[in-house]
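Pair request: fold both.
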Amino acid sequence: NLGEDETTVSAFVRKMGSKMTYRVTVDDEKGTMGKKWLEAAGQNGIPCAFVVNKSGRIAYIGHPMSLEESLLVKLLSEPSTKPAAAVAAPVATAPSEKAEELAARAGTLLRAGKTDEAEKTIAKLHEELGDKFRYIGGLLELDLMLARGETADAPELAKILAEDFAEQAAIGVAAAARLSYAGSPDETMLATAEKLAGPAAQSEGPARCGALSVLARVSFLRGEKDKAVGFQKQAVDCASPAEAAAAKDALSAYQEDKLP
């Protein structure tokens, strides 16, 4: 229990008696649990559940009411006990159709400002996503946080997503873009976006154009127009056919001293 002293918690436990089927503890005087877990994960309220899988990685962050038994089974399932000669199940190359539908619905609800409904939909989405595609729910959690104006915590969640999926540069860039496109990003958000996009911007990978576009936007928001134009010119030069039109439009906007 965070924010409650041992006396208060002990009284609660005595009152619950046999109805209480779970363990509780209290944070230390320094608030270590709150800082190392809640703040680091961009969570500013309780109850909040963290599920650590058998690889030692955080597999879920969210409200405990969203933790259906079926989701826990997926997150904490035992390694396969089939003989080594058995044919391995094919690895999913895309999210399930249901997961895609839930993700699309959550996005629609967020754009409509229906954050409570979006939160419930995202909770259902987490149940449908395998570990490989967990970032989809994570990015939507970041969208939800920004939609609710929880901008103080958003940078930490963006960092967690980028770290957990460090092998996929596009995810860190996507998190950075969300910070830079927030309504009124503060300097902490801009600095985080810049840090997350930086490595991909210096690479030759497919996320480079998006990363350079983030750096351009961050620079423009800081009042550094020439720097923004420079980054966006690089983005245009390395843009894929699918990215080219948007990259050129953004460059034109910066050259006209406008925010795209």
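--- second member of the pair ---
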Amino acid sequence: DQLTPVTVDPEPMYSGKEIFSTLFPDDLNIKVKSKFCKKCEVCEEENCLYDAFVVIRNGKLITGTIDENSFGAMQSNSILQRIIKDHGNALGRIFLDSATKMLLYVIRQNGMTMGLDEVYVHGHAYEEIEKILDDAKTESNKLIDAFHDNDTTILRRAPGRSMRETLELRIRQVLAEARKKAEETAADFIGDEAHSVIMTKSGARGNILNLGQMSA
């Protein structure tokens, strides 16, 4: 009865933020970045275009996406930890039980799954990933040639390492950077609305590495 519908046509409907806010104590105030954060140069906080900055003010979820960062039991500045710290374990248990029941109901009603179409990358994104991998291969071959030619201007020996060990470290670094770029490109192409991205970014199942490997 206390909720305000976001629309009444053709029937009253309520936002997820309004409904989830009913689980919070009235004096809960917290700000935290979610895992959907794009790491912008300047954080817009409440005005985040990606709804990645969680703001709870006086027990109301104003902005943000609830995920592992904001909800997780192992996070130092999470909602659960703040409730336990301010109100004790008993209220923390009530919040956790209530949130779990609510989320299980939502999943049963709407489902959360994925298909091949949610990891299929094509067009410009696929070409970009191909370029990233080709560039990594070229850079790796360049390092290998420098190793055989003893070219220290390109392959400088790392402190405490042999040249062969340095070569291995540099190649692993190049491939790791290429993998990260390919993962980010695939995730950006698929979009945050896809169930596969929601599951990985929220911390529910898998990680962005799995998604990138399937896509690329």
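Observation on the second member. The chain is about 50% helix and 5% strand.
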